[in-house]
Specification:
Length: 196
């Protein structure tokens, strides 16, 4: 057995909880390729620091709700921000450690490519504007840290864009989609499918 020097692991925070985000919450379907391009602030795209959202009990959050979003009862809310990696960081990075504060479900994208390993409370397969979360979150909390291997993440040296779509699990959203079931029935169906 050798007596080598232990590997040095360096952690660099790329996107803090209070990062500035661009977001859209106007209940408009941006299409499947929405995360492929950056969106400038203006029109329906707004900007603010995290945490962002609509929360009836903000004191329960793990950080300050800095940008309240007026509830539009949208099925999908869109968010994006940028972070930078030096060529040295990109060459030496082995994993991205991801933590989030999501209510109800989300799909994450880096430079327009979905990171399917990070899906949260969403079904497998294609995700679209009308996709609802598979479970509701009563009070959003900081998730358990998750390490995602860098290989295949579509990262580049320089500026990278992190985007995510938040999918609702709200009964009002289900009614607007013309669904005949409510969130409790949807959750029960998902549980039955998982148990099958």
């Amino acid at each position: 057995s050798g007596t080598g020097t232990p590997a040095v692991v360096q952690t660099v925070e790329l996107v803090p909880l209070n990062a500035s985000w661009r977001f859209r919450a106007d209940n408009v379907d941006l299409g499947a390729g929405w995360a492929a391009t950056s969106h400038a602030v203006g029109g329906s795209w707004q900007q603010g620091p995290g945490l962002l959202g609509f929360e009836t009990t903000p004191a329960s959050l793990p950080d300050v709700l800095r940008t309240p979003i007026v509830s539009s009862n949208a099925v999908t809310y869109y968010f994006e921000t940028e972070f930078s990696l030096t060529p040295e960081q990109l060459a030496s990075a082995q994993a991205l450690r991801v933590e989030h504060v999501i209510d109800d479900g989300a799909a994450f994208f880096i430079n327009g490519t979905e990171v399917t390993d990070l899906r949260f409370n969403l079904p497998t397969g294609d995700i679209g504007f009308g996709t609802i979360a598979t479970a509701g979150v009563t009070n959003a909390a900081l998730s358990t840290p998750r390490d995602v291997p860098v290989a295949g993440l579509n990262l580049v040296a320089g500026v990278n864009r992190l985007s995510f779509g938040i999918q609702s699990f709200d009964d009002g959203c289900l009614q607007r989609l013309g669904r005949i079931h409510d969130s409790a029935q949807a959750e029960a169906a998902v549980k039955l499918a998982q148990d099958a």
